[in-house]
Amino acid sequence: MQENTDRSIIINSLTLYARLAIVSVSGLLYTRFSLQALGMADYGLYSVIASIIVFAGIANTIMVTTSNRFMAIAEGRGDREEARRQFNVNLAVHAMIAVATVTLALPLGHTYIDGHVNYAGSMDVVTRVYDIAVLSSAVSFLGVPYNGLLIARERFFVFCGTDVLMSLFKLLFSWLLITHFDHKLLVYTYVMAFMTAFPTFVYMVYCRLKFPETVRLMLVCGKRRYIEVFNFSIGIGIGAVATIGKAQGGALIINMFFNTIVNAGLAVASSVSLLLQTFANNVQKPITPQIVKSYASGDMRRCMTLVCFASKATCLTMFFVSIPFLLIPETLLGLWLDQTPPDAVTFMRLIIIDTLIFTANAGVNDYVFATGRIKTYQLIISTLLVTSVAVGWLALRSGMPAQTLFHVYIVFSLIVFVVRPFIIRHVTGFDVLTLARRSYLPILLVLTLFLPYALWCRLSSDIAYVSLAYAYYLPLIYFLGLDSNERAALNGAVRAAAARVGVRFGRHA
Question: pLDDT tens digits, residue range 138-167?
């Protein structure tokens, strides 16, 4: 059984990385073309509107994790009838969220736009862009239970293929937008709305063809199931409000004290950070359902191993892909963008550092969510995150520069990193010493030993500078980041791959 699940992790990881290779290149070019087509002011405005939309859909964000968790638990126990009931409960909840979002988000968003958005153009256009984005987001909410089923069944190729198709379409459209179409912001908004809603229809069709017994509609009676989902959602909601408040609130806070051109710099930096984090999360993503299923089946030893590996691998991978953006950001943004917005380099470095701190606990969150005992954990962590937003707002209000907000975020992220182990030990009884020995310590050793190179070694050639950085970082990961079992598994995988390549080469010869 373990061999099969390990094999599925490898296959799913390869699928995710194949998707990422295409989506990453497309995403970088898409951001360049979008910024070039819209201009800094309109591109920054759209990032502010997107931040408001995320706040408007916060209930849906809460239910994404809830839906994925309950579907994975049902699949881990092998109970197909329970999976069907759980799917229908989540679908009913998401339908109500979609209706509530449209009903509440439109008037509340209009109030915020009228009172707080700084934009030199027509405010009627801003309102129209917002309305279109809200309606498309409401449609996307209905796809969440289907996506949760795909993750529970580990059909990663479905949403990977959809993402690839959508990213290529966005790339083509953003390129055409540079030289075609009038009213570029509105055209851009309509196309992005379509891209937001389209995956929902793909997931629905696929699940109805492949899993008809699970997605067949039924009325689930009895309050117990809804109460169980609701109670879990409260805990998730506490964390979601804080996380979204920190991530998206930064754009809204900066727009209160600066203009949309500064927001354009933040949007570029955030898009880079999100891309790097997505790359790192591809290590975690195929492991997440295995953590939940191992917990549901009572295999705690394997669950612990996966949690430690997911946390360590996600953080070290995040740093691996971030190295060029930390060492030579000016060169990369200069090659990538036609014109680099103000503060983009500073924002990017600070956001990457803040994200790195959080990825060190990537697997821990999966474990806590699998246990279902999340309220105390979420309340403490979320209080710290919300406090960071409030302190950052006070700092900007006092006249400090925009990047001060992210200095505050980093300080509070370090505080969260320190207190988190004590919380999970108290709440779940998790073996924190093992986590520290197998995850935190290797991360600390690798990054600490790499730091002198980043600070004091500077070569005249950017290519040589980054190449030498990787030549130094990779041995650090191999000898200090991996334990003996992980090194043996890696060596075995490399030998097996080499043998297969040799066999194929011999056949062709």
Answer: 787 777 788 777 777 767 677 777 777 877
Average pLDDT over residues 441-466: 87
d(CA 466, CA 457): 11
Across 207-225, average pLDDT: 78
314 vs 279: CA distance, rounded Å = 9
- Check the CA dihedral 70-72-74-76 and report its sign: negative
pLDDT in tens, 42-79: 767 667 666 665 555 455 555 566 666 666 666 666 66
H helices within 180-259, ranges in order?
184-210, 212-215, 223-247, 249-257
Would you say 446 and 277 are in contact if contact means Cβ atoms under 8 Å apart? no
* 129 neighbors 270 (Cβ within 8 angstroms): no
CB distance 113 to 130 below 8 Å: yes
Decide if 216 contacts 84 (C-beta within 8 A).
yes
Count of Cβ atoms closer than 10 Å to residue 502 Cβ:
10
Query: Which residues have CB under 8 Å from 388's CB, separation 6+?
Result: 246, 408, 409, 411, 412, 413
One DSSP character per residue, 398-426 reads TT--TTHHHHHHHHHHHHHHHHHHHHHHH
The whole-model pTM stands at 0.65
216 residue type, one letter: R
Tokens for 256, please give them.
């209160």
- Whether the Cβ atoms of residue 47 and residue 264 lie closer than 8 Å to each other: yes
d(CA 160, CA 282): 11
Helices (H), 360-483: 362-371, 375-397, 404-428, 432-435, 441-456, 462-476
**1 has a pLDDT exceeding 50:** no
Q: How many angstroms separate the CA atoms of 356 and 157, rounded?
A: 27
Structure tokens at 292: 């939940």
Amino acid in position 18:
A
Task: Answer whether residue 2 shows pLDDT above 50.
Answer: no
Distance CA 46, CA 130 (A): 9
Q: Summarize the confidence of residues 212-226 as an average pLDDT.
A: 75
CA distance 491 to 484: 10
Average pLDDT, the chain: 78
| Type of residue found at 366 | D
| 326-to-180, 346, 466 alpha-carbon distances in Å | 36, 10, 10
Contacts of residue 299, defined as CB under 8 A and 6 or more positions apart, other chains included, come to none
pLDDT of residue 438: 92
**What whole-number distance in Å separates Cα of residue 402 and Cα of residue 350?**
12
Residue 147 contacts by C-beta under 8 Å, 6 or more apart in sequence?
64, 67, 68, 159, 199, 203
State the Cα–Cα distance between residues 432 and 445, nearest whole angstrom.
18
Note the Cα 69 to chain centre separation in Å.
16
Helix, strand, or coil here: 306? helix
3-state secondary structure of 143: coil
Closest to 278 measured CA to CA, from 72, 482, 27: 27
